[in-house]
């Protein structure tokens, strides 16, 4: 069974303009964003001296998820990611659940990226909220103008982020190591740290959700996902080792800036803040693009209002979906806090990837690139990490998913009664 292509149904198509380099950079822009500057503190607080084990667990789960996503994207190279994979492999309800988890989880991620950007730029809370709102409006406008502009700006932001990270790593590895006292840890704490660190890995989904805009998707998407994830894992490992070597990342909300200051390079602290701000903007830009494409796919199948399936006749982007997304994220940055949206986002995205792994498990032998054990490990890992997250975030996300499923049940029931 194959997913319906827009050209087969007469719907407007997105333009295939992205090559391998563009796809890798969009994935890196999503992964190597605010997480590499902000996620270490809560993760280290949970894992203590076992932070690297938490990182390893997160990386293994991320690899399994990436393998499943890449394997599925070869067969279903259209916009929507696991929303499409779940529909085709498991049924419409599973696809709807995946799409809804992705949209709500990544909408929360957009708010987290915007708030992180503003936090590094201005000290006052309300100025932070207003600046975050401005960032959302500006980057939504960039996405509105077309995916090639998104890829071009992402390339610039990712390059700046890598330059700053390279400077930070040189300073930390050439500085004197410091002894520190780690927070107490447990098996649960290690798993919770892995769940928090997963927030920084999840960007490769953006590559799969943009399958309709990638040239030669069957070849490009698996390669782009693999390369982007491998680079991100390498960067995070270097950063984690450097932080543990030079101080206690659990003791500060800005561990990279504190670590640089601790090795006698206070002059570099403003540079680190600029790097964090640019990384957050890069992640936000890629997130807006990915959510718009999943919303487009859901609207095409009437799982969301059909109005959201509109593609701009000139810029060839899902402009209605991106306008609604910008409005919702704008409300979130004015009313929520960073910690809450990160936990909420992680829960939704882990459920999304659990469905991706289950979908890949059902693929026949001629469609497989990895053994089914990879899918099983990824599925179990996603569920385990999800339940270790703060319970308030999990309950709210689960309640929203249940409400969405009930609404869909009501709508499909009414549609069935009308036909009969």
Automatic annotation (TrEMBL):
Membrane topology: Multi-pass membrane protein
Transmembrane segments: 20-40, 52-76, 97-120, 126-144, 156-174, 186-204, 224-244, 264-292, 323-356, 376-407
Molecular-function GO term, any one: transmembrane transporter activity
Subcellular location: Cell membrane
Gene Ontology cellular component terms for the protein in this record: plasma membrane
Main location: membrane
Highest taxon, organism lineage: Bacteria
Keywords in alphabetical order: Cell membrane, Membrane, Transmembrane, Transmembrane helix
PANTHER family (UniProt xref): AMINO ACID TRANSPORTER-RELATED, MEMBRANE PROTEIN
Protein name: Amino acid/polyamine/organocation transporter (APC superfamily)
Record organism: Kribbella pratensis
């Amino acid at each position: 069974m194959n997913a319906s292509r827009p050209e087969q149904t007469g719907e407007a198509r997105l333009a295939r303009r992205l090559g391998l380099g563009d796809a890798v950079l969009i994935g890196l822009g999503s992964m190597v964003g605010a997480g590499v500057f902000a996620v270490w503190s809560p993760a280290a607080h949970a894992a203590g001296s076992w932070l690297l084990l938490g990182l390893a667990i997160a990386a293994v789960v991320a690899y399994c998820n990436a393998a499943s996503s890449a394997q599925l994207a070869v067969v279903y190279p259209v916009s929507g990611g696991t929303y499409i994979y779940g529909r085709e492999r498991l049924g419409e309800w599973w696809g709807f659940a995946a799409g809804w988890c992705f949209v709500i989880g990544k909408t929360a991620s957009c708010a987290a990226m915007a708030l992180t950007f503003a936090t590094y730029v201005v000290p006052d809370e309300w100025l932070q909220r207003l600046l975050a709102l401005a960032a959302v409006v500006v980057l939504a406008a960039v996405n509105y103008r077309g995916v090639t502009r998104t890829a071009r700006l992402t390339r610039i932001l990712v390059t700046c982020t890598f330059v700053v990270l390279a400077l930070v790593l040189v300073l930390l590895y050439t500085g004197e190591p410091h002894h520190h006292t780690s927070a107490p840890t447990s098996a649960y704490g290690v798993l919770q740290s892995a769940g928090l660190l997963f927030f920084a890995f999840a960007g490769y989904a953006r590559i799969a959700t943009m399958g309709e805009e990638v040239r030669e998707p069957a070849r490009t998407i698996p390669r782009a996902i693999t390369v982007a994830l491998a680079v991100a894992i390498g960067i995070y490992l270097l950063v984690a080792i450097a932080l543990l070597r030079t101080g206690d990342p659990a003791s500060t909300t800005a561990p990279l800036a504190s670590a640089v200051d601790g090795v006698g390079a206070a002059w570099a602290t403003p540079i680190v803040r600029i790097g964090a701000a640019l990384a957050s903007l890069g992640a936000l830009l890629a997130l807006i693009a990915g959510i718009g494409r999943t919303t487009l796919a859901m609207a095409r199948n009437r799982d969301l209002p059909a109005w959201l399936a509109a593609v701009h006749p000139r810029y060839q982007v899902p402009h209605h979906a991106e306008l609604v997304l910008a409005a919702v994220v704008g409300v979130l940055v004015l009313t929520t806090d960073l910690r809450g949206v990160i936990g909420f986002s992680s829960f939704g995205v882990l459920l999304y990837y659990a469905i991706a792994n289950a979908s890949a498990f059902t693929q026949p032998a001629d469609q497989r690139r990895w053994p089914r054990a990879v899918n099983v490990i990824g599925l179990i890992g996603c569920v385990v990490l999800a339940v270790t997250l703060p319970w308030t975030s999990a309950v709210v996300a689960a309640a929203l998913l249940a409400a969405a499923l009930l609404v869909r049940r009501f709508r499909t029931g009414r549609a069935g009664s009308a036909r009969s």
